[in-house]
Structure formats: C-alpha cells, structure tokens
Amino acid sequence: MPEIEFTGTGAAAQVPVWGCRCTICLRAASIASYRRRPAGLAITGEQGVTLIDAGSHHLAERYSPEQLQRVVLTHFHMDHVQALFQLRWAGGRHKIPLFRPDDPVGCDDLYKHPGIFSLQKPFQPFQQVEWPGLRLTALPLQHSRVTLGYLLQTPGTVLAYLCDTAGLPRETERFLAESPIDYLVLDCSEPPTRRPPSNHNDLNRALAIVRRLRPEQTLLTHIGHHFDNWLLEHTRQLPADVSIARDGMRIPCP
Amino acid sequence: MPEIEFTGTGAAAQVPVWGCRCTICLRAASIASYRRRPAGLAITGEQGVTLIDAGSHHLAERYSPEQLQRVVLTHFHMDHVQALFQLRWAGGRHKIPLFRPDDPVGCDDLYKHPGIFSLQKPFQPFQQVEWPGLRLTALPLQHSRVTLGYLLQTPGTVLAYLCDTAGLPRETERFLAESPIDYLVLDCSEPPTRRPPSNHNDLNRALAIVRRLRPEQTLLTHIGHHFDNWLLEHTRQLPADVSIARDGMRIPCP
Predict the structure, then answer these.
(1) Shortest Cα distance from A250 to chain B (angstroms)?
(2) What CATH topology corresponds to B3-252?
(3) Are A19 and B90 inside 8 Å of each other by CB?
(4) Residue A245: pLDDT above 90?
(5) Domain boundaries, given as residue ranges, for chain B
(6) Of A177, B36, B108, B154, which has the fewest CB atoms closer than 10 Å, so is most exposed?
C-alpha cells in the first residue's frame, strides 16, 4: 500500500534552533524523536519514492539514487532545497527528474550544476501530471517566492500539501473547495498572534483555512519552536480533526 | 594549548558519495571515522573557536553560538558555506563576525539574510588581521570563484591552509616562499592524472607545490573518493613528510 511520510516538519530554523535553550529545543536536542527537520514529504509507491522538497540532510542516508523516482520542489528557499547540493554529485548515469515551480532564479548554482537531477519544465498553475499510482496538481500559494502547493491523489486518498504559504490565493481556494480532501497538510509556523507572519500562517490563519476547506483531517507542519512551546500548554485547544505533524509520521494511502 | 582540528576533509561530493558502491564509499558508509565531510578547520584557542569554512552540517551540534568567535570563509561555493543556512537563524542578540573574500555575489541569499552573522568588510589580497593568539593573512588562490587561502600563525605554529585551488598564483607562492611553514594543508582532490582538474589539484600538482614551498609537514585535504581509492594501493608512494588528513584530526599549536 502506498504511504506518505513526513521527512521533516520544521520551519527554516528547524527544532532545535541552533543554540536555543527553550524547553522545546532542549528536549529536541536530547530526544531525537522531538526533532523537526526542514519540512517535506516522501511518497512511497510500488515503483519508488517521490520526494516533495529536499531540505533535510538525512535524505542521503535514507534513500538510494535508484529508490528516488523524482523530486518535486514547492519553491527554492534553501530549507526546501539544500540536500540537493550534496545529492547532485552522485555518480553513475541514473538521472532523477526534478520538478519545480516557474522560478527563473532557482537556488544558488543548482540550475547551472544540477548533476544527477534532470530539470523538468516548470509547472504552470493548476497543471496536472499523472504518474502510475499518483496524480499531482500544482496549486499556487502565497509566499515571498514563487511557491506551489500540491494536490496529491493516490487511488484511494486525496492529500493537499500547502506549505509554505500565508493564507491562500483565491483561485487555489476555489479549486480546493471543489475537491473533497482526506488530509490537509498545512503551513502553521507560529502560535496564534495579533500580527500574523507575512510569509506563513499562524494558528488563527491556519484554522480559518481549515474551516473553509473542511478536510477530513488536518496535519499542521512547518512548525517553529515558538509554536511548539505554545502547544505544550494549549494542545487541547486544537479542534479534534486538527493535529500536529511529527518527523517520520506516516499516512497510509489505500 | 591552542589546536587546529579538521572539521572536514572531503571534496564537494563528500565521502561516501551518495549512492556510490566503491570500496571507499561502502567503507565510509559503515564506519563513521572514514567519512569525509566538506573541508574546513576549527581553530580552538583560549577565547573560543575560529571556523575556517562552514560546509559541514555537524557544526550545529558540535559548537554553541557562544563558542564561535568568528567564521572565516575561503569562498562561496556551497560545500564551504552550507551549514550557515541553518546556523544563521539562531536566536538571541549574540552576533558572530563573518569574514570573507571579496565576492560580490556570495551564496544564494546569505548576504540578504545573514541572521546571527555580521558580515565583515571583505578581505583584500594579503590583508593581515591579528586576533588574540591568532594572526591571519589572506592569500589569493586559483579557483572558479574568488577564493582565499589563509596563513594562520599562532605564537608557536605557522599553518598555511590552501583549499580550494588549482596550483598557486605567483604572488601567493612568492609570499609563502618567504615564510617558514610548519604545516601546509593543501587541496588534493584527485589522484595523479594526465589531465589535472581545472579547479583543484591532483597529486602531481600538489606534490610540485610541496617541493617548491618545502613545509615541515604537509597534510592533503579536499579529498575525493577516486583519490581515496587510489591511496588504498599507493599510500607508500607519498613522500615521508606528506600525509592524508582525516576528519577530526587535530594539530597541536604550541
């Protein structure tokens, strides 16, 4: 059965934040299962693995080049791309298709030296591709760079991955309103705040999206240590159908 | 007593190279002490640590922000810079000075978002700075980007760190010829080859530099897996005063 795994659930600073001595960061530094690597997904099907983003450095140890069918980037911020700067130098003739949003700059010299990765034509808004066992639709998001979310459909499961984003563009929201969603995986970097961050969701904004899209279940991701600290005392305030993603968490996709 | 430690001794691909099944890479994948992270040094004195380059991701676990006195970059290729993209988001008011060559571009958005790092005025060729217990001289190298080597002088030890480079510019060689060198730490990415690489030394070119500069001892670094494989059978062909650096190796600096 295909399954979707969180390769990471952290914001750019990760958890623990370097040098931070808050309760959350000290806990994550001593207990690996509380750690949050940069946010991303791995979708494992019969024919191999599709990575959504590649910001986590453990990917080199976790997967072989032959296991990776493709990498799909949401955007070119370093915390979503950085592992590729090591992976690209793999030897052999095997090439891994790299799908991406339409960002003319990319990340540092990745376009110039993609190495093992074969750059695919950029996705256009709402473009759909169909691979064996997986249909993917590119969904424009609202972020400081050209950023795409993805609607991921396996034969029995619909998952919307919306990270990184501050709210949602109207067209994306309209598109999603017409699709029943089993799992909404949503950017929620910060606890509820009066001044929500300009490039991400705080919990208020995330819950407003949940109320509008009405998915079966929501998993919040791209979590910063401030939000993790807030959750220590307020987890019960989350709606019953909203939970917090963890690194390594798996979603079965019948 | 101050000491200098190799935080990494590998080429950009590191050892093991992702997915490679050569003898060297399989060994490094199973025995951590054979691993080669991206090349760099840590100079530990009474007042703290000076990093030369920050390409190795274990730096976040190895040092606290308070331990780091400064970071000195040789150049802005990703394998020498990449750990800064995590470290920069440390909290607190503590700032870490970041010294660098005169490269107008830098690496991705590091100049725009340096975070905890305070960008220092770029080094000019042969510029000298003196910190308590450590004098540093910037030495132009020959590489595909503006790149500096550094002559590092503690009260009792002179170490020249020349990585990444293909041969040496004449002025740098002239400067070094006038300085007795205890330790030459030199780029040697490849085994002896008829067509030496355009941006690095192969062993022939490295040994020619050793013969001209005549340091007390030489340690080769920035080592790729092809060179490591060659060494499996040819280590005895190295001159007695030339050896191969290893990650974690320490040089006492009286």
Answers:
(1) 25
(2) Metallo-beta-lactamase; Chain A (3.60.15)
(3) yes
(4) yes
(5) 3-252
(6) A177
